[in-house]
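Hi X.,

You mentioned you wanted examples for the new student's onboarding notes, showing what a folding record looks like when two proteins sit in one file. Here is a clean example. The first protein comes first, with its sequence line followed by its structure tokens.
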Amino acid sequence: MNSEDRQSKLEESPTKQRTPRQLPCQKKVGIYFAQSKNAMDTSSIITGSSESDEEDLEDDLPEKGKKRTADPLAKKLTKIRKTFDNNITIANEESEEIDTETSGYSSEKPSPKKILQISSSSNVELTTKTKSTSSNDIIVDNKENVSETQGTLDGLDDLFEEEWTYTKKEKESVEMLDDFFEDDWSYEKENTIDFSKAKRCIIIDIVWERTEITLTVKDVHEVAATVKCSGTWRYTKIQPGEAIIIKAIKETPEAKHWTVNNNSGFIISQPDTLVSGTSVVGALFCNRRSTLQEKFRLIESLPHNNVGNNYMLTGSLTHELFQTVLDEKITDAKKISALLDDILKSRNAIQMMYSAGISRQDCRNLMLPAVGQIHKFIQRYIVGIEPETPDQNYNGKIEKICDIEENVWLPSLGLKGKIDLTIEISQNKSKNKMFPNVERKVVPLELKTGRSSFSSEHQGQLILYTMMMNETGRKADSGLLLYLRENIMREIIGSNNAQRDLITLRNTVAYYSTRQPTIVKTKEEESVLPMEFPKPINHRACAQCPYNTLCTTYLTEEEKKELSVSHPLKAIDEKVADYLTQEHIDYVTKWVSLLQIEEDAENQDLVSWKDVWTLEPLKREKRGSCISNLNLVSVSEINGRYLHKFQRLDINATDFCENEYVIISTMTRINVCSGFIDSVSSETVTVHCDKNITKVYKDTVYHIDKSSFNSFLVQNMSHVGGLLDDHETCSQLRKIIIERKPATFQTKLPPSIMEVGEDIFKKINEHQKQAILQALRADNYLLIKGFPGTGKTQTLVALIELLLKLDKSVLITAHTNTAVDNILLKLIERKIDFIRFGNSTKTHPNIAPMLEANVTEHCDSPESLHTVYCSKKVVGVTCYGATHAHLSRRKFDICIVDESTQVLQPTLLRPLYSASKFILVGDPEQLPPIAKNNTARKLGMNESLFSRLDSKNNAVVLKLQYRMNSCIMDIANKLTYHDQLQIGCEKVGKATMPVTNIAEFESCEKWIRKTLSLRLKNSAIFLNTSATYHLTLDETLEERKGSSNYWEAAMILRLIEVLKKLGIETQTIGVIAPYRVQVHLLRKVVPNDIEVNTVDQYQGRDKSVIIYSCSKSISKDTKIQEFDILEDQQRLTVAVTRAKHKLIIIGDVNTLQRFTPFNKLITAFRSHERIYDLKDGEDDFSFTDLLRLLL
């Protein structure tokens, strides 16, 4: 082999795209459905295929020479397969020549195997990340005759019966779930892996051959095995190092490898991602749209896109009506009609009607036909009244409603879903009425409220639910698909080929949903490439797709060249090019990539879904993510929700908190229900859920797990994606945010404004007054830069009061609930009316009367709700809460954003869509938006919109501060503010600690007296502990963790003891530490009435005395980590500017001066001789004596 051939082999990679030309004889993929005999006679879904279709599907035939009738889904999945074509890993450049010779297997020996190798470059490093969420194994038997198929796992035979015993079948179901607890597998190492049941493995190696791929995998015991995958499975996008779930066969007992092919076995890729059934079938038509919708689905709810969807509204309400009728066993038509009226009066329904912009009467008129159809359904399938004339509908009876909205999570299939109804049915299979053969079984029922179509998506969804029910041990071989509008219900039976193709599609959806942007690293910089999407389809529906702008935005240059003149995306791309620039597109795609990168970092801090099915409950509990082995003692209904009370002795309640979102599991089922913790103690946990789980799950043990669900990613991606829309609001925001168009102002204001605001201006200083007037002059936006203690809140309240007098509407928002409430509490003092959107548990109790739930308590229609909302000139809500329906239906005159420097740019966009003008308020020298990923920070994710727009033209500055005395202000000026901060009041500038018992100074140590000196010039002091990293701890103390520092903690404890004796009130003393581990240590040491927190939690607040524990002490040889929190000047600025009368900083100077911000701070202290070097034996200072305080 020459060097060129060797190099070409090294460059082949599983991430390389495969084109149709490389694999010319690739088979089309079909999905096959068989309905019951009656359905087959009447439905047009199953039709004959073309000759070419039959040829393409030949190697799926059960017997050689025997053809099977194909259905139109084969053609649809051909499109899906084409999206696979360009993204398949093939490392065989000779495949084109080989495959053109024959479409079957050759009798000759296959060409040499091509072993996957990863090529590397010394100049550029490409790092493609895959996010992880959750899933596990695939367990579905794959025989040709579905009617003869049996589940590969026997589970609970009658899971939903009210009474059942622990049978052998249930035991096997429990053992099935235990198989996924990796840490609990047998310690006896086996020599082989048995893939007759699905197993989770790690891919070691992949070999790409002419007609198959060969996987080398290992299990949890490090046992290796070989699996050959052919047919559809050879196109699965996988890479070495990834987890995978395999179910396979051995073609002969002597075979040394396992086999997965079109007729046997399954592969589940990306197994730690549970894909919803609706997402899978949504990709049947257009995989690209499905992926875009999954990531940007909230873009349709933005104000400029918000068009009332009556179909979705009536569909949701019809589901509720139908399910409630069945649950409450209502058979009378009048009672069904009365139930409809009750539902339409519910708070939830009123909110839904308001969002859709429809009156209750109009909604009722749309819903009335459903009442009659539900009654007909009940009479036939529940009461048992057969139709006078036979029809083509399912001919059976519903014997029992087993569950409603059953939540099914199946790691073994990588799927999740909510089944509309789980029912037990009976059907006479005998044609002879004299000798009935009644079959009873549990099946899923899927309700559709539109016209009957028996579309591939609808049938596919039901087949997935059937597979999922099989996996739970209920042996469902079919499901019922009901079109309520026409009362047509058919039994849907999915063939093994259909199941295979749906799993293949699931793998594709999982692949694209887990793709992370590629980070390109060079010696000079890092950049990020856009995420990968499936190939676009060519269909007239593209013109009406709500995601077509995003679709064209993510077209590669090669894909654009491939678009034909008649392709719908061609015209859309040209239209988009008329109003979007490359700068606009780059901004949006960059932020989308940054959000994905950051989510990956955030998920590492959260509990992994994978743990729920790979770790047993007790081990999850040790990690602090689970409360295991609970007994359910009571369930009570409160306002339509169910409060579940769980009990167990010795619950560790410290890891869980009120209002935390959790999932509830049993020993055999994951996430049977989710809800919010109401309360938690050492013996009980109460959880609010939407359903009563005891209706289905009785006499079992429960586990409560933390949820790692994060909905903010979809919100933020939708907000930034909305900037690309062709709308006036989006155009204005693009000019301001992306192009950084300078703020413009009116030259003069009407003289009447000064008259209207005369009383208001008397209460504020000149800087604040000018800020308000400039806000009124601004045409589109203004920045108000408020330094620490300069009265930002007072300025905003005065501005709001003046705007109301000018008859303007105001939207008040901020990053945190506390910041929003701080403004609203001041409005209450001035008797200004408002409405507050948000959760009562997260808002200030004094605002309760203004909360939406209380203000709208008596609204009994969407019309009255709208009247109440619009009667409020002022609305308060957090940036994340700005997705409220009212903000989609109302344009405010002005939006005021407090703490805007802490908000991510995409998060801030949502309230800005709902206002004509905005005012950003904050201090760019204090905390920025949080970005945990280092690459994301480097690429600018922690740049706030305030910082992006900050300029002399765009901002006004508040300089007079009323918090710090002159000594502390001097330190802040030298550290950060360049002498811009000024004393707003002489009394404030000279204030010192309010000591009431000065005699206590005489009895304390000398170092304490120096530290707590009441002299103004000593109000800020730096206590240099020198190196503490080498000091030895007492044996009774816990081992040091991370940057925890017991010596600093002991000093702080002693200082607090003296401060309390001096008469300083405990609520005016604050302790800050940069590291959480030090905060945890201090909270154990310091009295509970002293607040100990991180810098972030002190933003926007102040205390009379602040003690800052720097914590870190290291040797000069220890390397400092990149992005160490001590290197963050903004956080240090916040810490220094929280104190009003006394600032005490404790730390090792030699360590701290290695950090740029602290070196600057230490220089400032040293220039005023305010560094106090503590030494054992001098000034009564002794670390040994101090540590005794901790024992």
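Then the second protein repeats the pattern, sequence line and then tokens:
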Amino acid sequence: MFNFLKKIFPSKHEKDVKELLPVVEEINEHYKELASLTDDELRAKTAEFRELIRSNTQEHEDKIEELRSKLTNDISHDERKEIYDELEKTENERDDIIEDTLNEILPQAFAVVKDTCRRLCGKEWTAAGQRVQWEMIPFDVQLIGGMVLHQGKIAEMATGEGKTLVGTLPQFLNALPGKGVHIITVNDYLAKRDSEWMGEIFKFHGLTVGVILNDMDNDKRREAYACDIVYGTNNEFGFDYLRDNMVVDKKFMVQRGHNFAIVDEVDSVLIDEARTPLIISGAVEMSEHKFDEMNPRVKRLVDAQKSLIAKYVGEAEAIINKGEAASKDEIHAAGVALLRAHRGFPKNKKLLKLFSEPSNKTLMQQTEIEFLRDNSKRMPEIDDVMYFAIDEKAHSIDLTEKGREFLTSSQEDKDFFVLPDMGTEIAQIENDDTLSETDKIAKKDALGELYSLRSDRIHTIQQLLRAYSLYENDVEYVIQDNKIMIVDEFTGRVLPGRRYSEGLHQAIEAKEGVHVEKDTQTLATITLQNYFRLYKKLAGMTGTAETEAGEFLDIYKLDVVVIPTNRDCIRDDVNDVVYKTKREKYNAVIAEIEEMKKIGRPVLVGTTSVEVSETLSRMLKRKQVAHEVLNAKQHQREAQIIQNAGLKSAVTIATNMAGRGTDIKLGPGVGDLGGLHIIGTERHEARRIDRQLRGRAGRQGDPGSSKFFLSLEDDLMRLFGSERISRVMEKLGIEEGEAIEHSMITSSVERAQKKVEENNFGIRKRLLEYDNVMNQQREVIYDRRRQALMGERIKDEIFDMAGSYVEKTVQKYYPEGDYNGLRDEIQRTFTVLMDVSPEEFQKLGEKGLDDYIMKLVHENYSRKEEKYGVDLIAQIERFAMLTVIDDKWKEHLREMDDLKEGINFRAYGQKDPLIEYKKDGFGLFVQMLEDISKDVINFVFKFTTQEQKVEAPVQRQRLPQRMTTIKQSADGVGMKMTPEQSDNMQSQPNDTKKIPIKVGPKVGRNDPCPCGSGKKYKNCHGKEA
């Protein structure tokens, strides 16, 4: 009946595929016609396609070139805006024409690629150091996948369906306009392999292929980006974008735009890795972290908590062992003890053993419900007797009053770890009539310093507690070469160069006793979500996107289309089996492996952590079962291990590395024995990771099977598993070593996974909301920077800044009639002399003074252009803009880091941290724009008063020096000078004071100010630096 209804009401994916079937027939008709052509005649088709695109867009390209050339001229601010609007409109029209033309030629272009594949069959070449023989011609379902990618959608294709080949179809088509196509892979190996493996198709037609690898220099990167088709990882593309927005000359840029991107393993890149933003950072010159200082205190606190939890677990166990003899009050006390142990140290091994009995976990959950009533009104009764409370689901830790007292030594203030109530304290200061205005300001500054100090201290403690309680070695990270290396929980691979943010990485370093790296300062940052939004068209392919379709549509506006397989999948997916304890589960896994090995079937055992893979390996060694282990510690042998994983009787234990980007081919005779058998040792929190593991078996119609072994001690079952499973096991009286197996159990586990996926989506969306604040600011800054970098004349923008500055200056002095003050500031800033009588000063009014001063400024600037030449002045304008923007943006990012680090504490004051972050971030951004305007004006007008010949500084890339420049006063010119230039300046009247050479140690941002005020340097004289 259900199948009958499906035929009447097909699914969305079936409708999507059905719409494309007529185009598939058209492609195959063209394919037949191409068979009679010679190689040269086939290549000529590509030239025809390119010429058609060029002729259709020539008029718009000429207009775009004309508009861009106008931007290099001396034009007004309003004219520039009109040109930008016209330029955007013309570019959009051109892009629409290109897209229409590509849609028109799609059947022919896809047929050309298909026929090229046919002609390459039997030929050999080297790809990533391995000899490969070409033997692929796109199937009809692959043609459908290629069309879906061209439409800017996600094509979900099963393992072994040839996603890499599918990608060549839209790559060829979209490379024809010459705007560039980017292919994003999950690692450097795949980028190099695919570029050399698939590259022969494109080279056959004269298209160029490049690859971006981690160890390439800028010249090689620029050469690769200039190619028609470019392969590389998301990290390389993202970091190159950030670096391009840090250069001082456009000749140092490597990328040439963001036209069309296809993301391979799109769910891994756009969802799993999207939680971690791309950050270019530099070490803070004087790092003052307190992790080493606080680590011994926190370690003692954690040890004290462990002892306390052991006591509670012992008390609960003693009552539980009484059985029916225990009174009602004793059972309630046992429930309270279990709840305290669960909130105090949820991974306590003795506690987990108790929870393997479903009745014990049910008792804890019932007690928890009791204390959570009325908005958790009674939960402090549970938490306050402990040193800290852990919410494992929210991944958070709260330090209790008892914990604060434990951390505070007898010589320290009892409020050593307590944040002052800023609102109340400031109100008391304001209402204290005994204080003068100066005293009130001093007290407010002191209060701010106290809040900052304690906030840093509490942040350090919380991160150390998270490191000790929630992050385990060989699970979330591994230690290699005395460094903490993060292990990706979704792929099982080590993430080189990645660090946990907000001090967590340093906390883990302190916990493990390795060298704690210096605190870093963000120089440039962007999330992957916002980076991939830069592309005009984005597409992706993977084997598991359907479960995250909502997130793809919500964040990236990407639709998911499930492509049917070329051959039906005959893999047997057995129901999950659930045991009480992990020990029982692991013993059952070993027994399953031995049984399969006797049959001769290869086995792939999937684990969720390095620790579990090594535990199973030790158990197999004791049984003398030959096997291979693939995890983050043996990632160098990945290709060799995967190559042998499909051979007869092979046993491979792998973390999630084996579920992503690997293709296990069956050895001779293995198919007749039943194919590859997949054993999952735990359900991952994301359903698609389990689907990836299952997908290693049953490729291209091969036989295979999969089976997941679970226990009530697994993290997913502990945190989100249904109570129904516990109750069923209790009622059935399951003995040790026995398991339950039913489709309802499998469905219940999947519902638990959905809960986690929804929670993780919320976390990623929240991260994106925070980054959107930065992204809006980033777009403004990068747009201003790029205008200067690309050689546009920005004189109008400088005069716009000058006009705003003059207006504010007049508003400052005119109401008080301070003519001398106004005259002196205008002379200092613009080096022009106001000559008006007091009567004229009053008569002109604010608007008249604005116009009068701007007339003087324009006349002075015109004289300088005549004197030094327009070209030199234009270079000075660009250099001033780039230098000041870089300096101020770097400082702004530091301020935003500081703001974000402590913003969550405002939730204690009943304020939404995100709204507070947006409000304060906007205030900081407006202040930065004002500082940029002021410094650019000072730079340009002061510099042009010097009469020596100056070489164009913009031609030298002195990035590190430029980025660490510190101006000692607002009067500084802002450029390094030769001794001769310095001598020339000394002969000028009203010369600028030279910056003294400092030989003492540099004062850090958070060090006490040398003036003796007691404030931090950044809040005192550091404000002027």
